[in-house]
């Protein structure tokens, strides 16, 4: 996590107060960019929806620690906003910071790249090249000193085996969402099931197209696969949570979405 560790090396005398304050500030900045993205997509309850993301237990708990999850989330959410506003170079550099904060952020290159194809066709290739090259080169640059010191060994990590199924269920449910959050998820799933069973399509009130949904669900799918490979920490799923809210904002009725957000 070279970006995180480099900045902490400059703040080491500040102790836990300094470390955790930086994480809290980054959390607020990331949620701010998510709010801007929701406004860009014309989500009616954008303010409540952004507060809902900030209030998910795994997010707000990690926003007061010195772990790297929120650093990567903040830079990724900033990158998402600049993808939507067609600024691929800025978006790529910000995603590079996310990759330098947590290497699994590289998975977002594909879904964010899908979102960039919203532009006019002759701009797609240029935007994609700018985005991919800036994100990958900038992100990889942070690992050069690490690779020079440790070689390929820097990619190894300690794994204590696959957790018991009961532990996986607990991590995947209450450690991410909390009790009220689980109720929110249950209501959202039930609402979607009722809509599907009654074949009633809810007219989307978002400024989004089909490829947005493809990109959002791709991001969720990537992090679900990564989580279930070694489901040790609820924080592994933090990058997927903004996309869950985006999907629900598009497909839930407004009362159901508002209920979901208020419970969170």
Span of the ends, CA to CA? 30 Å
User: Whole-number average pLDDT?
Assistant: 92
The Rg value, from CA coordinates, equals 19 Å
DSSP strand content: under 5%
Question: Roughly what percent helix?
Answer: over 70%
Ranges where pLDDT stays below 50 over 5 or more residues in a row are none
Shape: globular
* Most strands sheet: none
Q: Name the helix and strand elements from N-terminus to C-terminus, one letter apiece.
A: HHHHHHHHHHHHHH
Strand count: 0
Number of helices: 14
What structural class results from the helix and strand content? mainly alpha
What does this structure look like?
The chain is mostly helical and 264 residues long. The protein has helices at residues 2-10, 15-40, 46-55, 57-62, 69-84, 88-101, 109-116, 121-141, 144-150, 165-172, 174-197, 210-229, 241-251, 254-263. Helix 3 packs parallel to helix 14. The longest helix is centred in the first third of the chain and has 26 residues, at 15-40. It starts with a helix and ends with a helix.
Short account of what is shown:
The chain has 264 residues and is mainly alpha-helical.
Q: Would you spell out the secondary-structure blueprint of this structure?
A:
Layout: H1 2-10, H2 15-40, H3 46-55, H4 57-62, H5 69-84, H6 88-101, H7 109-116, H8 121-141, H9 144-150, H10 165-172, H11 174-197, H12 210-229, H13 241-251, H14 254-263
